Amino acid sequence: MKNQIYLIIAFLILSGLFSLGTLDNTGLQDKTRLRIGTYDSRTIAVTYTRSDEFMKKMQEMNSKLAAAKSSGDKINVFGLEKSISKSQDILQKQVFSTYPVTEILDKVKDKIPEIAAKANVSCIVNKWAVDHMGNNVEVIDLTIELASLFADSGIINKMYPPSGIPAPQLLMEAEGIIEGTGIKDVYEEGPGCTVVKKDNKSNDFNSKMAGKWKAAEVFVHGSNLLGQRNYYFTFQSNGIVKVEEPGRFESEGEWILGLNENSIMLVMKDETNSLTGRYDFAEDKLIISGRGFIDPNEYVCITLKKQDP
Q: Which of 132, 168, 183, 217 sits at 20 to 30 Å (Cα–Cα) from 23?
């Protein structure tokens, strides 16, 4: 009888331990579920170009280059121009592809812990740098929160809708765009529609480009394909660009001019309308030549005429 009692007690103890073990494991599983924050590096790069720090950096580099040219310091001019070209190459890869934005986020690293704490995440990583993610990971998109450290949230919400933006260009393709001088010198030619590299300073041409323009010609493979269609480009002073064809489509994004040469980037919500290339002015026309706008892999040259306010 005593042996039976001992067996029953032992069984109950073991059952209790098993139950406790099960509860502990469940609790452990809940505790080990990770929350991580991610961000789209392209949006961080674009919004950084709207920051006061970036604008100040541009002005300082322009001033140094102007001073070096004025004093005849050819060695310093060469070094500054190489540095500017390299920075522009990196920015293009960051805006259109998955190139890291570590040095940009380092500028605001003291503010990132607060964002992480509010979102209750253990870490924050570039979404394009994640090779694998287990089922025990919960992902929180913090793109807007991080981008807001550089630019007004109203602009960011337009650039980065809840649905996100299209997948980035492959890094190899982005690097292919910017071989040599940084951007292909001549994209698509047509009568009076050729753009070559020039030493244009963005500060001198931002105001000239601002306003509403109507496409007069759209050359693809040497042929003007515009016909009777009406395309309008509106470059706003706050960096927003709107491209529309009344009754057919409308696209919005951001326009960025090169720091010290006539490069231009149109970073649109609809990636198929984005463009990387060069710009120039000829008489009363604005000429934009590059890859994109009608197709990410097509080369196009557009002449535009400014509309009355």
A: 132
Q: Quick check: 243 and 254 in contact, CB under 8 A? A: no
Instruction: Check residue 127 and report its DSSP letter.
Output: G
pLDDT, greater one: 22 or 88: 88
Cα–Cα distance, 84 to 61 (Å, whole number):
8
Domain spans of the chain, in order of start: 35-171, 183-306
Q: Which residues of 4-26 are buried (b: 16+ CB within 10 A; e: fewer)?
A: eeeeeeeeeeeeeeeeeeeeeee
**Residue by residue, what is the 3-state secondary structure of 223-271?**
EECCCCCCCEEEECCCCEEEEEECCCEEEEEEEEECCCCCEEEEEECCH
Which pLDDT tens digit goes with each residue over 186-227?
A: 455 556 677 777 777 666 788 888 999 999 988 887 788 888
Of 280, 305, 31, 39, the closest CA to residue 156 belongs to: 39
| Residue entry with tokens 């990410």 | 296
Q: Where are the beta strands (DSSP E) in the chain?
A: 34-39, 123-126, 137-141, 211-220, 223-224, 232-235, 240-245, 249-257, 263-268, 275-282, 285-292, 299-306
* Six-digit token string for 194: 């050729």
Q: How far apart are CA 52 and CA 150, in angstroms?
A: 8
Phi-psi region of 164 (alpha: psi -120 to 50; beta: other; left: phi over 0): left
pLDDT of residue 13: 43
What is the C-alpha separation between 309 and 307, in angstroms, rounded?
6
Task: Output the CA angle 212-215-221, nearest 5 degrees.
Answer: 145
CATH class of 35-171: alpha beta
Whole-angstrom distance, CA of residue 301 vs CA of residue 217? 8
| CATH number listed for the domain at residues 183-306 | 2.40.128.20
DSSP β-ladder status, 123-126 and 34-39: parallel
The per-residue pLDDT for 234 is 94
Q: Tokens 């994209």 correspond to what residue?
A: 187
Condensed to tens digits (0 to 9), the pLDDT of residues 87-105 reads 877 887 888 788 899 999 9
